[in-house]
Amino acid sequence: MKITIFGTGYVGLVTGACLADVGHDVLCMDVDQAKIAKLKNGHIPIYEPGLDSIVKHTVEAGRLSFTTDTRQAVQHGVLQFIAVGTPPDEDGSADLQYVTAVARSIGEHMDHYKVVVDKSTVPVGTGDKVKAAVRAELDRRGLELEFDVVSNPEFLKEGAAINDFMKPDRIVVGTDSDKAADMLREVYYPFNRSHDRMIFMDIRSAELTKYAANSMLATKISFMNEIANLAERLGADIEAVRRGIGSDPRIGYHFIYPGCGYGGSCFPKDVQALARTARDCDYDARLLNAVEAVNYAQKHVLYDKISHYFNGNLQGKVVALWGLAFKPNTDDMREASSRTLMEDLWQAGASVQAFDPEAMEETQRLYAEQPGLTLCGTKEQALKGADVLAICTEWKEFRSPDFGVIAGALRESVVFDGRNLYEPDMLARHGLIYYAIGRGRNQFQFD
Question: Is 266 a catalytic residue?
Answer without folding.
Answer: yes
